[in-house]
Amino acid sequence: MSAVIDTASGFFLAYFIALNLVYAALFAISFYQSGAHMRRVALGGDDVVLQSPLTPPMSIILPAFNEEACIVASVDAARLLEYTELEIVVVDDGSTDATLARLIEAYDLVRSRVPVRLQVPCRPIHAVYVSRRLPNLVVVSKENGGCKADASNAGINVARYPLLCFTDADTVLEKDALLRAVRPFLERPRETVAVGGTVRISNGCTVTDGRVTRVGAPRNLLAAVQAVEYMRAFIASRTAWSAIGGLFLISGAFAVFRKDAVVEVGGHDTRAIGEDMELVLRVRHRLAARRKRFRMVFVPDPVVWTEAPETLKTLRSQRQRWHRGLLQCLWWHRGMLLRPSQGAVGILGLPYLWLFEAGGTVVEVVGYAMVVAGAVLGVLNVEFLLLFVLLAMAYGVALSISALVMDEARSLRTQSTGDVARLLLCTILENFGYRQTIAVWRFVAMFDPVRGRTSHWDSLPRKGFQAEQDEG
Amino acid sequence: MTLVVGITLVLFAWAVALALLGLALRLVRRREEGRRLAVEAAWRAPVDALVLDGAPLPAVPEHERPVVLDLLLRYRSLLRGPEAERITGYLEAQGYVRNAVEGLRARSRWRRAESAALLGRIRSGAAVPALVELMGDESADVRMVAARSLAAIGDPVAVDALTAALADPSRWTATTVAADLVEMGPAAVPTLVKIAAADADRPGNHEAAVTAVRVLGEIRDPRAEPVLIALLEGAANFNTRARAAAALGAIGGPAAPPALRRALCEPAWQVRAQAATSLAALGDQAAVPDLTRAVADREWWVRRNCAEALGELGEPGRRALAELSESDDRYVRDRCLAVLERLALEDGRPSPGDEGSAA
To answer: Is the pLDDT of residue A215 over 70?
Structure first.
């Protein structure tokens, strides 16, 4: 028994070291890249994007399902975005609430006969509405497709412009987000097929007229912990994956794609649970197979604000859906794994996801089970366990605080000292229960397909931005 | 075991140190901002006297120079005429231009870029030769800033260097230069025409010509009309032809409408689609018969643009749309009905779509 315990301990320690070396490497790359990026941003360029005749027009697609609380605020926020030529396409995916009615009333919509050119598959479109007040607004009413992917596809069919910005109806974009996101397309127009940006938590912020006017940490503890988690993921990870050419995920909350690339692969796959990651991998898979030179870029500046779940139930639902989506993507695109022709994603990105994201959940939960079993059998090496837990915690806290300080140093929109202190506290608190609970939820989610569970629209209850503002 | 304990302690210490560093950074930033505002308030009156009356500015202590410089540059960005000249003259006399020109030779690309940006903000004509030379820098960031600074200074000598940068390997630099050339306006036209004509049929790289054509379309100078027509009818690259059609739609001229009408029959659909839009932009009612024929084009975009163009061409266009809306061709019929409906919406009249309105 002692030999088994020793072997298991050695395995967990080796796995832990490998994982954290990867994290450290990613953070180091992010740190270097962020420095260069900030200096480049300081040289200016937003005005160039606004003035240059070469800036391509863009369609922003807002899929909505039962978003009556925030749909008008979302469209108003999109209207205020700084961009040369922007079309707003709202897709009402057969909402059962008053989403469409709110839009019709707010923007004086009338039904249009404009023929829709079906370039990617989607459920039947009932009607296309145009606004008497806003010439650049189009609203699509369609049969419910059961997922955001189908709604996005309807938006792709209606969109007129060569660049597509996918976002959610419940997110708020910074006013210059599109100007920053389009820059990689201007720098290398032939190669750039997709650009992603940072997603931040809007809970605790003050939103006025579709804009985040005061940045603050969430008052809800669960949301505050997620704020730290998002910061770590976007600052310490995505920047690095983008730099090494292995970006495997562009968040569906904010992604800009070249329309021809999306149409070429047939749009979003409506069977996908994590349609954002699946689209990224499929575009990569297809373009690499055709030996085309392309790149996908993460730009830290374009910030979008989204509401984080504030209850355990909704958080569990979200995280289990994400994990099922991850596993599905990994399985569907297993052919990319370790293929040199797939570039950094095949050689580095996907092995990382298999080993440390999908595999990490199993290792973590098995580890917890072994601790319990060891304690019951009386063979637990308490000293080793305590030390291991402390080491893991110290590393997690150090990484989170590094991300927080990096964000603080480069952010133009500062939070109050109290808010920063609250986030600092969350870097410690997340180690007591939060991370373990998430791991167990993800582990359970692995068996959902066996239990016949499928995924539908993320129907997380939203307070809406007005509600957030009123509370503030 | 001792090693693991040591690593744990180091990590905790690192976390605590970083947290303290973050909080200290906030305090330092706040204090710096307060100090900057105080210095700026103290220097505002002497700076106003320099800018408005030409009164000499007292010697500025070394540690206050960045704040005073920033104040002067903000004034410089807002002012024109003698006040602006006084600021540039003062900064030249104080050696800021000389130092920045030296900074253009720094090893760090960021230092070179920052120096170039400063020269652009000072807008000193003395910096133009050095900035033109910098357009050949190895760093795209530096070339981009140099282009912007040259455009800000606005010296006609820089036009050739800027126009040549339309062929820059970094398309970001080309994008910047395009915006700058649009801002410079007619002064850039002769060189742009030369680039467009010379590069149009160079095998492999049409981007400089295409960009030059797009900039010409934005500047809308009639001198560009002949070369644009020549490109529309003779360029080997379809993108150059389509962009020439777009530019002609913006510029116009007596020979443009016939050339665009001929382009409705050209092999590349991108050119046919753009020609339709440009004919509408020029208000060429003589094009109604050609557009009516082209509404039945095999390409979706050509059909769409032709129908939209007819909608823009007044009563003859609308009459043609009304006739086409009874066509046997479903695609033609639907497209024309959609345009008629949009026009009715714009005019505030009831449209065929209104009966289906959920409002």
So the answer is: yes
